[in-house]
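Title: Prediction job returns without error message
Component: structure pipeline
Severity: low
Priority: P3
Assignee: unassigned

Description:
Job completed but the reporter wants confirmation the result is attached to the right record. Sequence as submitted:
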Amino acid sequence: MNRYQVTYDLLPSIERGRLLDVGCGDGDLVFMCREKFGECYGIDISEVRVERARRHALEKHMDGLYFCECDADEGLPFSDSFFDAVTCISVLEHVFNPPNVVNEVHRILKPNGFFIVQVPNVAWFPYRIQLLFGKLPETGGVYLGADWEHLHWFTKDVLVKLLLASGFQIKQVACSGIFAKYREIWPSLLSGDLIIKAIKSR
């Protein structure tokens, strides 16, 4: 399964609830989740992609969808305890300050709200082999032999510690791709990405 489908399956259905997708891109995950939540919001740093998402929403005649341009590094423009769930797919490796972004997610979530976060796993076995031979893992866009798109690299332990420090409780560790259920036995070694379901515990 792809990362969006895994994320969708991890989310509960909250008929009158609100969901936010941080780094929504063209809004694909937002559109998927609309049938589970009363209102779905998407933010992205790209004005072009936000406009594309808005246009798609109009073309699909879907209500309860809201998109806005926003730089997550500058804070999330929502009041405290506003959302029932927040998703953050392939975003934390791109932002300047992941702890600040995670703290902002914690702030805008309701108590016991759900946070689904996905990042590339630099400790994946093929990446370990690349490091063994003196090559940087290619977790994103590669130019001149290095990954210049990603500002941060994550392992399972690093991501878990980040979430715990921000007041989240870990509920499930998953991954996407072929044979995902088998690779979840040892995701830190066998999975190219990490998908964690957490709840706001304090």
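Comment from assignee: result matches the submitted record. The domain at 3-120+153-181+191-200 is CATH 3.40.50.150 (Rossmann fold).
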